[in-house]
Amino acid sequence: MKPLRVLRGYLFTIIGIAIGVAGLVALGAMSERIVRFIEGGDRFVLGQISVAGRGMGMGTGFTAGGLLPAATIRAIAEVPGVSGVQAQVMLPLDPSTSQFMTLTQELILGVDLAVPMPNRHYRALPVRAGRFFRDGDRRVAVVGASFAASRGLGVGGHMSPPDGARLGRRTAHGG
Predict the structure, then answer these.
(1) Which of 110, 141, 112, 122 is nearest to 40 (CA)?
(2) Strand 170-172 relative to strand 140-141: parallel, antiparallel, unpaired?
(3) What is the domain partition of the chain in residue ranges?
(4) What are phi and psi of 107, to 5 degrees?
(5) How much is the pTM?
(6) What is the pLDDT of residue 104?
(7) pLDDT per residue as tens digits for the range 99-129
(8) Sign of the C-alpha dihedral, residues 48, 49, 51, 56?
(9) N or C end of the chain: smaller count of CB under 10 Å?
(10) What gap in Å lies between CA 84 and CA 13, rounded to an integer?
(11) What gap in Å lies between CA 54 and CA 102, rounded to an integer?
(12) What percent of the chain lies above the pLDDT cut of 70?
């Protein structure tokens, strides 16, 4: 009886070590993904100077900033040393959900395609599959890879915005 008890003790020890190692591997993978996510965001944000109009106050980010008048955008473009000004609109996809203290807020980003992207690190936003916008595109969306994966979207797939949004049905062309 005693050898069975000893064997069971060793088995629990081995299983415990295996679970511990698996947990450490999972934590390492998660931290690597978070580091890449933050580095990509830093690279994008630090590649440009962003200006927002009056909004809801500090801490709400550009998603709650007001729009700049066209005259202000023209004045910024005339400042010596400014290589380009591209009007952008950034809004939360689902404003009914609290995004406080989250890293992955789903955003709608509208850009003026007539102006080249003035970001030092990204002359064009990277697209894993499909393509970026083209002149004349209507009712088309370029979605992020994780957004597409979470909704089962592929290139050419169709999506509808959340209830209450007034965007209409879109065709996915990138990610």
Answers:
(1) 122
(2) parallel
(3) 1-46
(4) -120, 155
(5) 0.51
(6) 62
(7) 555 556 677 777 777 777 777 777 777 777 8
(8) positive
(9) N
(10) 62
(11) 23
(12) 77
DSSP letters along the chain, please? -HHHHHHHHHHHHHHHHHHHHHHHHHHHHHHHHHHHHHHHHHHHHHTS----BS-S-TTS-GGGPBPPPHHHHHHHHTSTT------EEEEES-TTS--TT-S---EEEEE-TTS----SS-SS---SSB----TT--SEE---HHHHHHTT--TT-EE-PPTT-----EEE-B-
- Token pair belonging to 165: 């949004």
- Angle 129-48-38 (CA atoms, 0-180°, nearest 5)? 60
CA within 13 Å, CB half, 117: 17
Q: How far apart are CA 94 and CA 101, in angstroms?
A: 16
Amino acid at 139: R
Residues 66-100 pLDDT 10s: 678 889 888 988 999 888 888 877 777 776 665 55
User: What's the mean per-residue pLDDT of the chain?
Assistant: 75
Could you tell me if residue 154 is left (phi over 0), alpha (psi between -120 and 50 degrees) or otherwise beta?
beta
Distance between CA atoms of residues 166 and 163, nearest Å: 9
